[in-house]
Amino acid sequence: MDSAYVFDSEQATKLLMKNYELVKTSGVSFIDKRIRFLIARLFAGNNEIVQPEKFYEINKEFKRQLGMFTALNGNVRASLVGLLMASDNGKRDSVGQVISNYNTLIEAGFKRTEYTYFAAYLLLESENPTLTAKKAKTIHQLFKKDHPFLTKSEDVTTAVFLANLKEENVEKLAEVTEYYFQEFAAKGFRKNDSLQFLATTGTLLYGEKDSKFIRRVDNVVEELRQKGVKIKPLHYSSIGILAFVMDGRKIDSGLVNLIDDLQNQPGLRFGREFVTALAISLYTEKQSGQMSKEQLEGLMVNVHILIAMEQAAAMSAAAAASAAAASS
């Protein structure tokens, strides 16, 4: 870990905006602006530039393979293309595999929603998608047992992520997740789907009940509040990953500078809540490169994949909000 590392908010902002413009002019139309920014953030977080021609071609391939009658709308399709490209899975066979995984999840009992497509992307990590999908359905049912009114179709993504773990005892996975859920709720976090994802993040990172994670998240929240950052449910998952990545290190002024820089961008006028979520996620991705050897060796799940998952969840929410706005 480089103790002299300083986060450059200006450079991060420029890279994000450059990728945004490339996605915007890629020829893939009718994408919600928030989705474009989330896709741009995937590449900016990796210090990469999106290839607009490839983005267009993979989007076209999804349309070709799925045809007209599908739950996959333009926002979700573009989001999946971004996720595939950012994780070096931007190939034709990856498109076919995502579609195949989607059908596998439907056969396992999940509903036909945009969230199921994001879960299908996560199933790319599985060596046996059919078994993992069945395991995920069992986990989802256990979630529903604990939270019958809270657990909905969007929780398919968290269920699949947990199912990808080597731990076969699904009751243990659900129990550990419930522990984090209740502990964070006791700290004042709102009981909603965002808290469910934060709780899942704890299970994915530690694999067991660990009060250290609770304390670190609590410390990060307090640190951000002292810096004038208001914490909303949209930020929960990013904060959980950030708390792990920072490993007790202090958050430098770069994060607040990034929030301010992004807020001043002409295309980012969605309100501070969305901008803050985007900034925390981007800051976390950059800081993850400074993790210690001990942190990396102890990981149960790849942090970059976890951050991508957090982005998938954010994209799901943004896509759903866009669909709701379009139908109202």
From TrEMBL:
This is Lin2792 protein. InterPro entries: DUF4003. It holds the Pfam family DUF4003.
